[in-house]
């Protein structure tokens, strides 16, 4: 949404930015409304919604990476067997989507393929897919709480992401506006919300670059602006280079506590392939335990 008029300076007014921002926002919202009314390309959102009522549910938006879903599904089953896990596929390529569907089915995980996305840029594409999930699965499903996970975010311990919701409405990894303007948002790849706290709010998981916020930041107005950040527990976060001898920016991994984020869309293709190898090495002992025939999954509540 456009900034408050008081935040536009004289140069903005000379360039008619308040008007252009307002028109662009109206266009984005119209496209979003049209998109969320479209049916799934694969799967029955209403049927999936009926399975999550009153439960804590984890949802990921898959995108062109079947292996990531295989890794994530294995580890979530290992560490959080009591939480439903839903894969919503935003992949534009049909063959890749079919591969992701086969993996979801092999894990016994509900699979939905989102409608064809109108956006090419990953951030805006991800945001509109999340809004489709909210309107077609989460809001009608009425879970106790829901968590949004990036598809390359992997747990390495039974660190319950919903535990902080016992004393607060929202939890996740906090990011800040760029450039800084006092606003903040929860990264859409690690966001937890109590459903009762947000069910009647006009949620928007899209970006809002007019106020410097990436995917999930459009919830600044309806959600995040209502909270004092200093009073909220937040996910820890640290970025490290995936191997020795390179800078963090050239090949980052992110640790959100014991959750490992591959940060999959940064770097050259050969770097990304090598980073996936390193990530799989880190995850190997957990995957071995998860895939063992006599695996006894570790419940977060135990």
UniProtKB/TrEMBL annotation:
InterPro entries, alphabetized: Nucleotide-diphossugar_trans
Official protein name in the record: Glycosyltransferase
Species in which this protein is naturally found: Rhodopseudomonas palustris
Lineage of the species this protein comes from: Bacteria, Pseudomonadati, Pseudomonadota, Alphaproteobacteria, Hyphomicrobiales
